[in-house]
């Protein structure tokens, strides 16, 4: 394999499995310098000058994404294949304690992500059941590919503690800011309480973008507590007024079209 160090994976899983389980506000881990040869991925990462991204644009999100592997540069397609292979699945299962993980051959909502100056993604919980495969979403795996990222540009993925009171989501406390630095791996459990996002608009220079690769993993069985199917669900920040409440409700129910260019799958 060109990008995953197979000798290192079991060692990392053993080293971080307890920390993963105990991390707040929900199980997660950050591992830096993860990939071998990350520069090969950065060198071919798509940009809007030569690639037709899906564009998600609404008051709650402003980002670019693409999931059609056949159209990716070979290096990115190869990395995605390595991260869907049995060796990486074994690493994830040992790290997280979740058995029977299944990669998504459609990369629904995943693939390559890019945000430009002004880009944002409000805090949310993710869609929980794959709309085509009907599998339960269990893990988010993200690799950040941004050289010389500055904290003043924002773009940090915020991990929030929150609660759901009879369908009304409320954020309680910000626990972590994870900046999208070069060759950083983030893994977290996808649950009904995994509130996350980068809600502050990017303040990076024009021409600088926030780039990442995302994969989501599933199981055939539901978690023990059971959940109802829902789409991506955006939640307002503490202290935010109610101006966008009705529009947010429409977005969460899939009644708000966020696509200004391209035709991304529903998420």
TrEMBL record:
Superkingdom of this protein's organism: Eukaryota
Region (Disordered): 236-267
UniProt-listed Pfam families: 2OG-FeII_Oxy_3 (PF13640)
Listed Gene3D superfamilies: q2cbj1_9rhob like domain
All residue ranges annotated as the Prolyl 4-hydroxylase alpha subunit Fe(2+) 2OG dioxygenase domain in the record: 112-218
Protein name stated in the entry: Prolyl 4-hydroxylase alpha subunit Fe(2+) 2OG dioxygenase domain-containing protein
């Amino acid at each position: 394999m060109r990008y995953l160090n197979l000798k290192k994976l079991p060692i990392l899983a053993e080293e971080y499995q307890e920390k993963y389980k105990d991390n707040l506000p929900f199980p997660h881990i950050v591992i830096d310098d993860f990939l071998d040869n990350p520069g090969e991925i950065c060198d071919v990462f798509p940009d809007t000058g030569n690639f037709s991204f899906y564009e998600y644009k609404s008051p709650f999100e402003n980002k670019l994404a693409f999931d059609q592997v056949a159209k990716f540069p070979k290096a990115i397609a190869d990395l995605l294949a390595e991260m869907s292979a049995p060796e990486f699945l074994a690493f994830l299962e040992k790290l997280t304690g979740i058995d029977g993980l299944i990669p998504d051959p459609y990369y629904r909502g995943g693939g390559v992500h890019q945000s430009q100056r002004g880009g944002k993604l409000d805090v949310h919980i993710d869609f929980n059941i794959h709309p085509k495969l009907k599998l339960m979403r269990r893990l988010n795996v993200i690799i950040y590919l941004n050289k010389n990222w500055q904290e003043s540009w924002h773009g940090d993925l915020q991990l929030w503690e929150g609660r759901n009171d009879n369908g009304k989501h409320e954020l309680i406390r910000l626990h972590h800011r994870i900046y999208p630095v070069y060759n950083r791996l983030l893994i977290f459990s996808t649950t009904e309480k995994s509130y996350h996002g980068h809600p502050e608009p990017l303040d990076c220079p024009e021409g600088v973008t926030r780039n990442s690769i995302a994969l989501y993993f599933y199981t055939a069985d539901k978690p023990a507590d059971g959940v109802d199917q829902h789409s991506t669900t955006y939640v307002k920040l503490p202290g935010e007024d109610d101006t966008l409440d009705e529009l947010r409700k429409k977005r969460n129910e899939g009644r708000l079209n966020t696509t200004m260019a391209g035709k991304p799958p529903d998420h």
